[in-house]
Amino acid sequence: MPLAISLHLLAAVIWVGGMFFAWMILRRVAGELLAPPQRLTLWYHAFQRFFPWVWASVVVLLATGLWMLFGVFGGMAGAGVHVHLMLVTGLAMMAIFLHIWFAPFVRLGRAVADEDWPTGGQQLAQIRRLIGINLILGLVTVAIASAGRYL
Q1: Which residues form the Copper resistance protein D domain (predicted)?
Q2: Do the Cβ atoms of 108 and 127 come closer than 8 Å?
Q3: Residue 36: C-alpha distances to residues 42, 67, 75, 120, 131 (Å)
């Protein structure tokens, strides 16, 4: 189980940490320093590099989470409430990411390619809101993971 736990934690840190950096740091700096064409282009290319890491994190989180769920707890019946909550919040985060990937991110890419900055701004705003929700869910999940079994 040490391997599963380590991989699980690393995947969560990569995903949640990346969202924290994007939301709390890059968003503000890009908004202050860059005009819309440069800002939207920056975000699109940053997402192009970050989202493959999110995909890898999703795969690792699902695989290691199920490995631990069935290998340690013997299934959902043997898992505590904190494990159930982590599964629910994790699946919600994954669903939100899938929506981002297949909808506003694709539209942002088209808008940047077409230099349609108003549409790109709308898509980036939608992505920003969804990442904000995912960041909150991710931080809650980390808190549940680290303290949940002691409640």
Answers
A1: 45-146
A2: yes
A3: 10, 44, 49, 9, 19
What is the DSSP secondary structure assignment for residue 73, as one 8-state letter? S
65 and 75 Cβ atoms separated by less than 8 Å: no
- Residue 101: which residues within 8 A CB-CB, separation 6 or more? 51
Q: How far is residue 93's CA from residue 58's CA, in Å, rounded to a whole number?
A: 9
CA-based radius of gyration for the chain: 17
pLDDT in tens, 62-119: 999 999 999 999 999 999 999 999 999 999 999 999 999 999 999 999 999 999 999 9
Furthest-apart CA atoms within the chain: distance in Å: 54
Which residues, other chains included, contact 10 with Cβ-Cβ below 8 Å and sequence gap of 6+?
A: 60
